[in-house]
Amino acid sequence: MSDGLTLDGLAVPLRVLRLLATDFGHLPAPAVHLSGIFPNRLELSLHDDLAEFETWRDALGIAPDAVKHSTQSDGRTRVLKASVEYAGAELELVAYARVPDYVRSRKWA
Known about the structure:
By secondary structure, the protein is an alpha+beta fold. It has three helices and five strands.
């Protein structure tokens, strides 16, 4: 955590969260993460439904080609990430979803 960081030091991402709740309150609720290490970042994460990520991506005006695709957990979890500057904060949108064909595609010895 940043030395001497106060709640005021997180005012920018908290303001962005308030704006998002006002402007996009009809969208699926993400998990919200603030960090004292990155006090100007707000992370919204969505789990198990990539369609919710797409809904948020579109609402935030993030281009589809700006989304980074990867996997984790030995290929079992698909990860989508995108970042955008929003009202003075770095807004990071992340989605995690199980890879549906993981078990069938693996060769077990």
